[in-house]
Amino acid sequence: MDKDLVIKNSIFTCITGSHLYGTNIESSDKDFVGIFIPPEEYLIGILNTEIVDMSTKTEIKKDTTDVQYYSLAKFTRLALDNNPNILELLFVNKDQTTLSTPISDELLSLKKHFLSKNVKNRFLGYAFSQRHKMLIKLEHYDLIEKGLDFLEKSDIMYLNELPVNPYFIRVAENTTALKGTDTIINFPTTTSIKKAKSMLEARKRKFGNRTELISK
């Protein structure tokens, strides 16, 4: 579906993800979700479109914007199924919306009617999956810090000169990896220590230290 048509027929847009939850860090990208009403020719026949990706990608993660638009029918079905990512949007504050219309205001006024007994299990499952993701990122953050500390104390110039150690492992002839329970980052074996530290610092900023968030 033409993206201009999506914008023209949009009835609601709001921020979501970490910026909605207050868990965003400096490197976090921005996520938005919108609702649109497709034109008549898309509601009947073979042109039906339910989800349109309007994201913009950049090399710098924090400048990336993820934008997902749902048709009103698709959004309503997901909300009735108590999909946590969708249901939460019915409860956002006004200042977290970037577009609202009389139709979306009426939709949000009916939010309690979308709730069912299934909502408890759906949100518990969602919460546990999100916590698991954060624990993995915390593990990565800790390993990156240890790897950086190890490189800081080394007096060599390139990764291929590293002695056997618990952090950097030769995984192929030309590849060295910072590796924990899974591979965090791969380096060409000829990478300089200075370059490796720069790459790890960038990855560290991306993950962020989420210890405080997880312990709340």
From TrEMBL:
Source species: viral metagenome
Record-given protein name: Nucleotidyltransferase
A Pfam family this chain is assigned to: RlaP
